[in-house]
Amino acid sequence: MKGSCIYFGTYVLQQDMRVRLPKAILANLGAEKGNSQFDIYLDKDTNEVILKIKTNNNQES
Length: 61
Known about the structure:
The protein is mostly beta strands. The protein contains one helix and two strands, in the order αββ. The chain has one helix at residues 24-29, and strands spanning 38-43, 48-53. A two-stranded antiparallel sheet has the order 1-2. The chain is globular.
């Protein structure tokens, strides 16, 4: 993984495809419940799913 990483724990993929995010996400990313959006990426080489908090200047490529 690039940069520094913080491990939050292991979470189960729910039947309806949801993954609960740990409360530490709110403090570490400044995310807001019910308001923040995330861009989702897949790194196929490392088999990693990457969530990036969406900002107004993020554009889809």
